[in-house]
Amino acid sequence: MKHFSVAELKEFEDMIDAMVLHPDPARFRRVIEDIGLLHEGEPFGDDEIVEYFGHFYEFIQIDGDYTITAAYASETVRRFFDQRGLRRDHEGIEPAPVVRDHQPHQPRPLRALR
Asked: Hey, how many other C-beta atoms are within 10 angstroms of the C-beta on 58?
């Protein structure tokens, strides 16, 4: 089981804020560069980055019911495990942050993001 640190939860919060709550493609790019999900200076436009990563935020951008279909799930798995990243051979994308090594710690209660 993966336990996320406070710092990792803050990274997720920053990504959600820049992608969904206060959409800002340039800020989203800076956030994912800062956390190492995208190498700094990769030759992708901010809109390309949002288009690629936006898939992971689709279901929380919809106000109302959202059905996660088999097609959506399949695309999610394909993107999640695609080490090539964005479509110009995707060299600049790092593996997803949820598979990083972590230090074991005592589980903490979940708290909602602001």
From this structure: 14
38 located within any domain: yes
Determine the pLDDT at residue 104: 42
Range of the domain at 80: 6-99
DSSP string, 83-99: TT-STTTTTTBPPPGGG
Could you tell me if residue 112 is inside a domain? no
62 three-state secondary structure = coil
- For residue 38, give the DSSP letter: B
Q: How many domains does one find in the chain?
A: 1
Q: Token pair for residue 89?
A: 């051979």
Residue 79 is encoded by which pair of tokens?
């993107």
Mean pLDDT of 84-102: 46
Whether residue 113 is contained in a domain is answered as no
